[in-house]
UniProtKB/TrEMBL annotation:
The keyword Calcium belongs to this UniProt entry's keyword annotation: no
Gene of this entry: dctP
Protein name: TRAP transporter substrate-binding protein DctP
Organism: Vreelandella glaciei
Keyword annotations from UniProtKB, A to Z: Signal, Transport
Any one GO cellular component localisation term in the record: outer membrane-bounded periplasmic space
Family statement: Belongs to the bacterial solute-binding protein 7 family.
Taxon lineage: Bacteria, Pseudomonadati, Pseudomonadota, Gammaproteobacteria, Oceanospirillales
Amino acid sequence: MNHNARFTAHAASCNTSKFKQLKLSLLCAGLLGLPLMAHAEEITPTNLRLATVVNTEDTYHIAAERFQQLVSEQTDGAVSVEIFPNASLGDERTILEGMQIGTVDMGVITNGPVANFVDEFSVFELPFLFPSAESAYSVLDGEIGQEILGKLEDVNLKGLAFAERGFRNITNSQHAINAPQDLEGLTLRVIENEVYVDTFRELGANAVPMAWTEALTALQQGTIDGQENPVNAIHAFNLAETQGYLTMTRHIYAPAIFIMSLPAWNGLQEEVQEIVLDAASEAASYAREQNAIMEAEQLAELAEAGMEINESPDIAAFQEAVAPVYEKYGDQFGDYLQRIQEEVK
């Protein structure tokens, strides 16, 4: 007998006697009320502390604000997100360590530092791996990216979604760069990640790994000659003030990641977990869209501020120079490199 037939039988039997009518009416009311009960659970008021190392002009902050808005809307304000920009809770490694022990709830973190906690994330740092943003999105949002994102749980973190830092480019204060030999003798800050260090040493630069907060001071003081970052970061941090030359090498596509403390994640109600996961995914997509929209305008403003921009360097020469990086690290990532290369093709 199907549900409708059973319900009809109950309704008919409600007329048999006053006692049965009362008893079965209550049963009928219970059956009708079950679907409403599934949505009646109240969301526990919660405040999430989200940290970044960027200023409020950066796309990490744009992504964080979008996430904040979506979570508030979907929970009717029961879950609030408090954003801490400008490295106010520490550099990215410190933020990640804070998430591990539960003193920071979440952050939007550059992929490079994350790779120091889970080796497999370094595969995304290999130079010239992705020919386009679309190819990167396909890998990161697909099976490969989600497998690697899941490995964060092994180190007491919860990966939510891949946002974007973008394709990285070289700036310096000394002279124009068109080919690898132009990097010889230059001291460049790189992310604290061995793949970055080896990539730029193969290109001939003196690669110095350091936290971004330290790099900004070093650039201003002239103790380093340059750095490498996507256009959005170069623009957001006004690097035209210290860096006269920008070369659009697009040498590494750098994801950013919405990451949460696993203890904080486990403390959320299941309904809230779903909301947080969906909000992170939507905010990540929004950040990507904003990066694409803003890049041309940002390049124009950097040029107006005095930067000399080389938009067509000798990419083939750069690709050839970093071949030893693939030889050194290719086997380190299991089958991930091969799977990515096959998907990109």
